[in-house]
Amino acid sequence: MVLVIGNGLKGVSVFTGPAITNVHTIEKPRHSLHQRHLLISSTRSPLVKDHELAVINFGIIEKIVLDNLANHLGFTYEIVPPRDIMSTGFLQRNGSWTGTTGQLQRREVDMCVTMSVASSGKANIVDISYPVVYADSAILIPFPTENSRIWSETSSFQVPAWIAILVTFIATVLVSWIIFRVSSSRLGAKAPNLSYWFIFYFGLWTSQGVTPRGSSTPFRIVCCASLFGIYIAVNYFTATYTSFLSTPVFKTAVNSVEDLANSATVKTLLNKGSSTEELIMSSSDPALRKLAAQMRRYPERRIVNTLTVHDISNIIQENTALIMAESNAVSLIETSYKINHKCLVTLAEKTFLSRPQGFTYPKNSPIAKSIDYHLLLMHQAGLIQYAERTAKSENRCRVSDLANAQAHKIAPLGQKEMSGSFVILGLGVAISFFTFLVELIVAKMKKAFGRK
Asked: What pTM, to 2 d.p., does this model score?
């Protein structure tokens, strides 16, 4: 976003994107906030001095922006958190609102700095400021456990590799049969049939140690080529197999909001009274409508203590998913990691609902124009971007990042990783023993028929 503020003009022109897509004019405010003392509502730490509240990214941004506004406009402030619910609130049956929206409705405070999105349901009660930040919604889910690799080793060979091995085996059998057939016809001897060569090379490839009856040079060349092909196949498998085992395999419960809406096992959780809940409950999007129907069917899944729990992993248990702003979710993941020293929660790979977040005022508040005007100035000066960078924390429990990082390490192969190797070895022994029995039975049958 590019913001251009005109000097000496009546208002401020706002340009979005590479071309002008939306222009509105905000008159330079005449209402002064100098030496005023404002009552400001907030629900987030560090503005709210409550040790039970988790410090999240939005809370840090709100404090930095508010302190800059106070210093520049010359006002002082006092934080007045809502007494009923620590969120933007929800509409009650009597027409009143709870949370920060209720404070604004009753005009108990001058403004609320808990960032939220514009809502048609609150349009007659509150006004929203110029956007402070833009935020995506994300899905907080339990960190997935690593999948078993017992049967997954066969995927190390892709379909073309298996086809190449089969073609090599058939070609080796045919070439050996043709060579011996031609050589034997010249010498007037009887050549082994095609089934003999099939059993011979099958036994050779399964480590049966079958010895050739002939000793001609062409036959030895074919054997040499066959063994060389096995050598290449084994080395290809070893390299692919090692790389495969070095990369963790995780399967998350859901990857997107569509997965969550269509899941019959994962329970959706929402922050009661949050702007995310309000948007989902009133959305016409098919996936969000399904989630809204679930919330109406199971109202107990709307939780009120998301930011007051010591560790978010106590809420995000198996087969549950919590929807909230991505920035705040990353903060909760970081807190959980510091407490447990391991990843217990993470985010689904796909985010959704990118929305502008702003402050709110009572309807027709006299201070709204002053705050909006200076928010624009802060955007132009880069102070909002500075606040975002200061508050930003990295998601160290992102599944894709952990898998990619592990793939570039030389990981030792332990019992867990090598469990599939023992399965493959057991299958090989079983095939080898079966081949031995077949050869033994064929030999006995030939011997019995020969006596007759």
From this structure: 0.61
